[in-house]
């Protein structure tokens, strides 16, 4: 223990500075005595009372969806680009219907592609592993060669 308090803690000329140093050391050691048994032996009921509530665990699909709930999807045909903001779990049929309605086309006359693969109406951005800003291409449906 340092004795820096020996000259600054004296209240009067008659009191020895050693008294305050001893008192200071007693207080410090008392503090140590109080804290030592507390950390050495804990009451198990104390641990039960202070435990945090368990964090609800999310499935892998929820963990992947947690960072971005909505996606901005660009839908392009020959002349137009239309942007849609949809949830990851929304069937792409809604997007396909909305695009066709805006462009005045029937859904049976066009096909939607994502990364070169045809998009089915029941697909979702999650099932196709789409990311924010991805593009769906719209092509005229052709029969034959």
UniProtKB/TrEMBL annotation:
Chain spans, region Disordered: 1-64
Extent of Polar residues compositional bias: 1-20
Compositional bias per record (Low complexity), positions renumbered to this chain: 21-36
Alphabetized CDD domains for the sequence: Ubl_Smt3_like
Annotated transmembrane regions: none
Composition bias type Basic and acidic residues, residue spans: 40-51
Xref: Pfam families: Rad60-SLD (PF11976)
Record domain Ubiquitin-like: where: 69-145
Source organism, top-level taxon: Eukaryota
Protein known as: Ubiquitin-like domain-containing protein
Native organism: Penicillium angulare
């Amino acid at each position: 223990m340092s004795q820096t308090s020996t000259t600054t803690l004296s209240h009067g000329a008659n009191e020895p500075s050693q008294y305050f140093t001893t008192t200071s050391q007693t207080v410090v050691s008392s503090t140590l005595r109080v804290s030592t048994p507390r950390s050495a032996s804990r009451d198990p009921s104390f641990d039960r009372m202070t435990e945090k509530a368990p964090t609800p665990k999310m499935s892998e699909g929820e963990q992947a969806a947690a960072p971005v709930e909505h996606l901005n999807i660009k839908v392009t045909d020959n002349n137009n680009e239309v942007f849609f903001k949809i949830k990851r779990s929304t069937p792409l049929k809604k997007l396909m219907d909305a695009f066709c309605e805006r462009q005045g086309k029937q859904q049976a006359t066009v096909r939607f592609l994502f990364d070169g693969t045809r998009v089915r109406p029941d697909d979702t951005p999650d099932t196709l592993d789409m990311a924010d800003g991805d593009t769906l291409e719209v092509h005229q449906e052709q029969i034959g060669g």
